[in-house]
């Protein structure tokens, strides 16, 4: 709308024609920052970081330059007509959302939230669908209050949140600081979570940043679903636990949300699927010991039984890329893992390795392991 013109020249005709044009192109929803009113700006004056919403800051400047009320608020009914005509949903933006913990749940944010409730009812009267944009920086102790207040002031309209971040001092890790808040927000009623990447506040994200952000928010959404007791939400968790108890690595990785990363991390230390992993080793593997205790059901589910240890398959291109980025292994070792056969540990698929507990006595298993695997890296030793 403001490309090629000055911000202060923005007018109703430009706004409505631009919305009409984009609606005809098939846009699903518009974020409209109509809740930032001229009378709210006085509450922003003493904020630590002012207005952090692009739409909110632009419209605040427009109001101050033109000495008028928010243009989007003035023509709200006309905007509703456009969206209703093309079946486009409203995302009513929170232009005064806090940009730091210091400004969370302040007067400016709450005054705007009241206006969003008014705009929601007006949009509904036109037959428009509505969702409400929520805050991005909120301390943990204020999240529940924010969620419940929105539900009351906006008459139960779906609420989506950008996090919220629960601390401000971890730039580069804001996918983590925000997914903590997102988990709590989802538990207390958020309808949608907008993911945050590690590049938040720092720059444009790349492909891997997006992956990290999406996975963090998958964790948040799933954790909230489990906590809410949604039927079936925990089924996959329980299946993976049974596979883990049975030391069925292949099933374990198949059930993992990010199979490639889980498999790559495992094979980085020990590319043999056997009855222990590199963390505790054979003698100290609590899961193996629990499975061997006859009185315990742990690890004895026939559905998760497996046909013996095996050398894992060669790394996929995705798994190879993960290990290359980690930089823990030499390029030659990654190449070996990506191009290996099943000769290591003298086993093939469906056969038990010589070092497996059920094949050899414990002492002999350890001896064979020492012969076959480097005691530090737990990898087959390099051939002279």
Draw up the topology in text.
Layout: H1 12-24, E1 29-32, H2 54-66, H3 71-74, H4 76-85, E2 89-92, H5 107-125, E3 130-133, H6 140-153, E4 159-161, H7 174-187, E5 192-193, H8 207-227, H9 235-245, H10 249-255, H11 259-269, E6 272-273, H12 286-292, E7 310-311, H13 317-326, H14 331-338, H15 362-372
Parallel strand pairs: 1-2, 2-3, 3-4, 4-5
Antiparallel strand pairs: 6-7
Helix pairs in contact: 1-4, 7-8, 9-10, 11-13, 13-14
Short description:
This protein is mainly α. 45% of the residues lie in helices and 5% in strands. Helix 1 runs parallel beside helix 4, helix 7 packs parallel to helix 8 (207-227) and helix 13 (317-326) runs antiparallel to helix 14 (331-338).
Structure explained in plain terms:
The protein contains 15 helices and 7 strands. The longest helix is centred in the middle third of the chain and has 21 residues, at 207-227. The protein has helices at residues 12-24, 54-66, 71-74, 76-85, 107-125, 140-153, 174-187, 207-227, 235-245, 249-255, 259-269, 286-292, 317-326, 331-338, 362-372; strands spanning 29-32, 89-92, 130-133, 159-161, 192-193, 272-273, 310-311. It is 45% helix and 5% strand. Helix 6 (140-153) links the parallel strand 3 and strand 4 (159-161). It is elongated, with a radius of gyration of 28 Å. It has 2 domains: 7-227, Radical SAM ThiC family, central domain (TIM Barrel), CATH 3.20.20.540; 235-372, no CATH class. It is mainly α. The model is unreliable at 342-355 (pLDDT under 50). Helix 1 packs parallel to helix 4 (76-85), helix 11 packs across helix 13 (317-326) and helix 13 runs antiparallel to helix 14 (331-338).
